[in-house]
Write a structure and sequence with these properties.
Elements (H helix, E strand, L loop, with lengths): L16 E2 L2 H9 L9 E5 L5 H8 L4 E6 L2 H10 L7 E3 L7 H4 L4 E6 L5 H10 L6 E7 H8 L9 H9 E9 L4 E2 L6 E8 L9 H13 L5 H4 L24 H15 L1
Parallel strand pairs: 2-3, 2-5, 3-4, 5-6
Antiparallel strand pairs: 1-8, 6-9, 7-9
Length: 263
């Protein structure tokens, strides 16, 4: 079923409003609520296509957050009794601790120009965010969900897969949006691993992964030389391999070995 949108999509905000109601229902249904959270934050609700369905899930308390003033004005008119659940703010800058006191999930038809930044912020707050369901550019979604050995595998793939079970749910054509984007889209779901321990120092893990992928065309012997002198690398595993061939567990092992040799 197609949907008509009363708000003008703005290119500089990366807005492409979902017009497929069946897809919208599938996105909202993908929120499991398994971790016992009640609060849900929708990023970029636009005209409220997902919001309508989220408000019907009475087990959730949903907050709508959008940076677009026109969308916010429309949402206030559409949901006159929910003023306290509609927030005009930039997700990348807003203080989420002021919005939620406990665990909260995130959902949204994410603006493609900030979708990766959204996930980096999720990682920063992963102890508070048990689940994420979001729309991404198909190419970006495949990169995040891909496994080692795939040329699309990158930094976000490693980080998200370390802390979350990552699943690509389905893809959508350009015609599912107004205006249609120039790329296909895909929906990802991330479920946080409970009682999870990384197994190494987190900051060092992030440094190791970023160093490896910052020079992904080089072997790890060369890429990791920014962290450890080459004369201290002898005997380390994976040195003749490239960044995209290692699992997140391999990076944990490598991080611990590098830390040992820094002493």
């Amino acid at each position: 079923m197609a949907i008509q949108h009363p708000v003008r999509a703005k290119k500089h905000l990366g807005q492409h409003f979902l017009n497929d109601l069946d897809a919208a229902q599938s996105i909202v249904d993908a929120l499991s609520g398994h971790d016992g959270y009640r609060d849900v934050l929708e990023i970029g609700p636009g005209t409220g296509v997902l919001s309508d369905l989220l408000f019907h899930r009475t087990e959730f308390s949903t907050v709508l957050l959008d940076i677009d003033k026109e969308s916010i004005e429309h949402l206030h008119k559409k949901y006159p009794g929910r003023a306290g659940q509609i927030v005009e703010a930039d997700f990348l800058k807003v203080n989420l601790n002021d919005m939620f006191s406990g665990q909260f999930a995130i959902i949204g038809n994410f603006p493609y120009n900030i979708s990766s930044q959204i996930l980096f912020r999720v990682l920063e707050m992963r102890e508070r965010i048990p689940e994420v369901v979001g729309m991404f550019q198909k190419e970006v979604a495949e990169r995040i969900a891909s496994g080692p050995g795939n040329r699309d595998y990158g930094i976000l793939s490693v980080f998200m897969q370390a802390y979350y079970r990552t699943e690509l749910l389905f893809t959508l054509p350009e015609s599912a949006f107004t205006p249609p984007p120039k790329v296909k889209s895909a929906v990802l779901r991330f479920e946080r691993k409970e009682n999870f321990t990384l197994g190494c120092d987190q900051a060092a893990f992030f440094r190791t992964v970023k160093a490896a992928f910052n020079q992904r065309r080089k072997t790890l012997r060369n890429a990791l030389s920014v962290l450890l002198p080459k004369d201290k690398m002898e005997g380390l595993p994976f040195l003749e391999r490239r960044a995209e061939t290692l699992r997140w567990e391999d990076y944990v092992m490598l991080t611990n070995l590098i830390l040992d040799r820094m002493v």
